[in-house]
Amino acid sequence: MDEGEFDRKRLEMVEYQLKARGIRDRRVLDAMSRVPRHVFVPDKLRNRVYCDTPLHIGEGQTISQPYMVALMTEILELTGSEKVLEVGTGSGYQAAILAELADFVYSIERIASLAEKARQRLEVLGYTNVEVRVGDGSIGLQSEAPFDAIIVTAGAPEVPGSLCSQLAEGGRLVVPVGSRTLQRLHLARRKHGQLTTTESTGCVFVPLIGEEGWES
Hints:
Elements: H1 3-18, H2 26-34, E1 55-58, E2 61-63, H3 66-76, E3 83-87, H4 93-101, E4 104-109, H5 112-124, E5 130-134, E6 147-152, H6 161-165, E7 167-178, E8 183-191, E9 194-203
Helix pairs in contact: 1-2, 2-4
C-alpha cells in the first residue's frame, strides 16, 4: 500500500468510523485526518491499521482502536493551550494526536523499548512539543504538575489518586476503570478545588501496571 492509499484509508476512517459513530469535535477529526497511524504499527499490520480495531505493537501492548482514541481525546475538550499528561505511551500514536491539539504533551511509558521507539517516531514526524519519559505512569509526573488534562490509555482498578491531585483547576482526567479485562471510561474534573467524576462507555484496555494500578 503506498502513501496515497494510506491517505485515502485514513480519510475513510474519519468519515465512516469516527463521524458515523458520533465524534463531532472538528479539531479532533482534523487531527485524526492528519496523523499517519500506519507509521505507528509493525509493517506486517499496516494493511489493517485503518480498521476500527486495536492492534498489537509488541511487549503485550496495543495501539487503541481509532474510535476510542478519538472519543477519549474529544472528552478532554482540548483548545490548544493545555499542558497534557498521557499515561501509557505505547506506540506514540495517541501522543501525536494530543500534540496536534495541545501546547505540550508529557507521555510516560513503563517499557523502555516502547518509549524509545515512540520517541523516534514522534521525532521523525516533527513533533517538538512531546516529551516521552520512562516510569510508573500510575503515579503521574509530579515534577511537571499541574496538568490541564490527563489521559490514561490502560485500565485501572480505580481512578488513581495521584493523577487526580495533579490536575490543575478546571483540569480533566479520562481513565478506563474496572477489572483487568473490562472497564468503563471515567471522566474526572476539578472545579473550585473539588473533583467530580462521571462514567461513560464501556471499553477494554490492557491493565495499568504500577503503584496505583495493577500488580504485574
